Amino acid sequence: MSDVGTGTGKVVVNRAMSLDGFIAGPGHAMDWIFTHLTSDTFPEVMAATGAMLIGRGTYEVGRRMAADQDDAYDGGAQFVLTHSPPDEPDPAVTFLTCDIEEAVATARRAAGGKNLEILGTDVAAQCLRRGLVDEILVYVLPVLLGDGVRLTPPGLGRIELEPFATTRSGAVTMLRFRVRKEPGSSGS
Ligand SMILES: NC(=O)c1ccc[n+]([C@@H]2O[C@H](COP(=O)([O-])OP(=O)(O)OC[C@H]3O[C@@H](n4cnc5c(N)ncnc54)[C@H](OP(=O)(O)O)[C@@H]3O)[C@@H](O)[C@H]2O)c1
C-alpha cells in the first residue's frame, strides 16, 4: 500500500513508545528512542512524509537533545505551534500562532500531497479531539521506562481505532491504526 496519494496526504500522529506506554521517560528523557530507532529503521515512513507539525514542548525537548537525535530524518517542512514565537527564530522552522485546525491546514498544504506528521503530546491530543487525525503510528521499543509522559494525556476520552499494519524492523515493532471517525467514536 502506498502512503502517498495523488491528492491530500494523511494526518499521522507518529510516536515512539516504551512497552509500558510512555513516549518520554522521567525528565522528558528521549535517549532510549535513538538507541533503537533511526531514519533507516522504517525508511518508508520518512519517504511518505511531506511536513511535520510540532508542539513547542517537543521542539524544545528536541533542541536540548540535539546531540542524541537522528539528524538524517527528513520529514519535510517543519512547523512549530506556539503562543510565543522566539525573538530569534530558527530559520529551519516556521513558527505558527493560530488555531489548531488552521495550523494543520497550513502544514498540510506544505506537505504537497504527502503525509503530515504530528509530533507533540498536547498538539496531537488537540488534533484527536477535533477529529483531524487519520492515523496513529506507534513504534514499540523494547524497553520499560516505569514512568514519564504517557502516549495520550488524561481526559482525552475514548477513540476507536482500526489496526491495519504491523511491521518489525530489528528490535522495533511498528503498529499502525486508522482513527475511526464515525459519530460517537471520537473522544471529547
Ligand atoms: N516518543 C515520541 O515519539 C515523542 C514525539 C514527540 C514528543 N514526545 C514527547 O512529548 C513531550 C512534549 O509534549 P508536550 O506536552 O510539551 O506537548 P507539545 O504538543 O509538544 O507542546 C505543547 C505546546 O505547544 C504549543 N501549543 C499547543 N497548541 C497550541 C495552539 N493551538 N496555539 C499555539 N500554541 C500551541 C504551546 O506552546 P507555548 O507554551 O509556547 O505556547 C504548548 O505548551 C516531551 O516529553 C517529548 O519528549 C515524544
From TrEMBL:
Record's protein name: Deaminase
Signal peptide interval: none
Gene3D superfamilies per record: Dihydrofolate Reductase, subunit A
Superkingdom of source: Bacteria
Coiled-coil portions: none
Stored InterPro entries: DHFR-like_dom_sf (IPR024072), RibDG_C (IPR002734), Riboflavin_Biosynth_HTPR (IPR050765)
Boundaries of every Bacterial bifunctional deaminase-reductase C-terminal domain copy: 10-158
